[in-house]
Every structure is written in structure tokens, then in C-alpha cells.
Amino acid sequence: xxxxxxxxxxxxxxxxxxxxxxxxxxxxxxxxxxxxxxxxxxxxxxxxxxxxxxxxxxxxxxxxxxxxxxxxxxxxxxxxxxxxxxxxxxxxxxxxxxxxxxxxxxxxx
Length: 109
Description:
The chain is mainly alpha-helical and 109 residues long. It has helices at residues 2-33, 50-53, 84-97, 99-108. The chain crosses the membrane at residues 6-26.
């Protein structure tokens, strides 16, 4: 009898978790398509009364903005293909310029 109670409880929890997952995915898709207002200078007005006196505006993370402050609509991960020799040369250059490499060279001399 106790086993059936556990199965019933975990089945209910699984349905709740899947329902929350689906609801969050839908909300994220709506949030992604939403247009956010531009930054305004009203946040620093001397007439505002701190946190409760101003409307709270959404400010996106700085990594989601380009150099002029506009939201990026492109994919954030762009991979450039390079050949193995170029990658090896770049890694060797990083290794040679590291501080630990200078100490090893002095010990060998």
C-alpha cells in the first residue's frame, strides 16, 4: 500500500514539473519576442523618490547589447573554422608568452 502511495505522489510531482517546464518554455518564447524600451534618462531625475517612486524598467544584460546599446538579434556564438596548424601556432604563442614559461627557460639556462 505504501508503494502505491509513493508512486502516486511521484506521478503527481512529475506532472507538476512537466507542466512548469512547458509553461516556462512558453513564457520564455513570448519574452524573447517582446520589444524592450530604450534606456531613458528618467532614472537619474532628482525629482524621483528612489526605488518606489520610479517605474522599474527592464535593462538587458550588457553582453546582449552591441557597441551602440541596441539589443543583438543575432546568434551569440559564432565559431570560425581554422586549420590545425593555425590553432597549434596560436597555442604555442600563448604558451611562450605565459609567465611560467619564462621561469622554466631561466632554470634551464
